[in-house]
Amino acid sequence: MAFTLPKLPYSYDGLEPYIDARTMEIHHTKHHAAYTAKFNEAISGTPLESKTAEEIFANISTASPAVRNNGGGYYNHCLFWEIMSPKGGGEPTGDLLQAINKAFGSFDAFKEKFSTAAATRFGSGWAWLVKDNSGNLVVTSSPNQDNPLMDVAEVKGTPILTIDVWEHAYYLKYQNLRPDYISAFWNVVNWEEVARRFKG
Ligand code: MN3
Predict the structure, then answer these.
(1) How far does the centroid of ligand 1 lie from the alpha carbon of residue 77, in Å?
(2) How far is the CA of 158 from the centre of ligand 1 (A)?
(3) What's the CA-to-centroid distance between 80 and ligand 1, angstroms?
(4) What b-and-e string marks burial along 67-82, b requiring 16 or more CB atoms within 10 Å of the CB?
């Protein structure tokens, strides 16, 4: 099974002014495309070729660094594109909002916790909102291209929201101001998609 680079569900300038078109185009056509190609290369001719990304991640500790880094890079960006939208922003509703309130006290407290996880992840990585195996919501972050589906993850579960905090995700527009990029991100979060993934 070969993994394919998905099309973005919106145009490269669709997330302006929060995430600029040039960053989106390079991020998708260069970075994500390279992870996808190298992931396929790394599993080609191995037993992993017939597995889903989720199955590969469940035993990632036994795989090569090329599979871990590029498989994560492939999957994480697929999720990242999906949980953003030109019509995003605002607040979640219904069951998702209730679960957020239960786990974090309030939506604002959740935003604060997620933003801090994203801002304080040293070097390159991702912040996550994860539905754990008990159905509870947890905020975490991971280095490099690791994700919560991997057996090596500090917090394991189903990722339902994520932000890429590699410099390539924001440097053209925000330079070293990662917190400004994180603040802007909230304006493009696709809560309908996050809620869909929460329902699972
Ligand atoms: Mn990236």
Answers:
(1) 6
(2) 19
(3) 9
(4) bbbbbbbbbbbbbbbb
Work out the mean pLDDT of the chain and round it to a whole number: 97
**Which neighbouring-strand residues pair with 128?**
140, 162
What the block records as the tokens of 29 is: 């056509």
User: Full-prediction pTM beyond 0.85?
Assistant: yes
- What's the rounded Cα separation, in Å, for the pair 65 and 172? 28
| Torsions phi, psi for 167 (to 5 deg) | -55, -30
Ion ligand 1 contact residues with beta carbon within 5 A: 164, 166
Distance 125 CA to ligand 1 centre (A): 9
Q: How much is the pLDDT for 200?
A: 87
Interval between CA 145 and ligand 1 midpoint (Å)? 9
Would you say 183 and 81 are in contact if contact means Cβ atoms under 8 Å apart? no
- Residue 72: pLDDT band by 50, 70, 90 thresholds? very high
Cα(127)–Cα(165) distance, rounded to whole angstroms? Answer: 7
The answer, yes or no, to whether residue 141 has pLDDT greater than 80, is yes
Whether the pLDDT of residue 1 is over 90: the answer is no
Share of the chain above pLDDT 70, in %: 100
The answer to whether the CB of 107 falls within 8 A of the CB of 194 is no
> Which of 24, 25, 34 has the alpha carbon at shortest distance from 84?
24
CA of 162 to the centre of ligand 1 (A): 11
Biggest alpha carbon–alpha carbon distance for the chain: 49
pLDDT at 22 over 90: yes
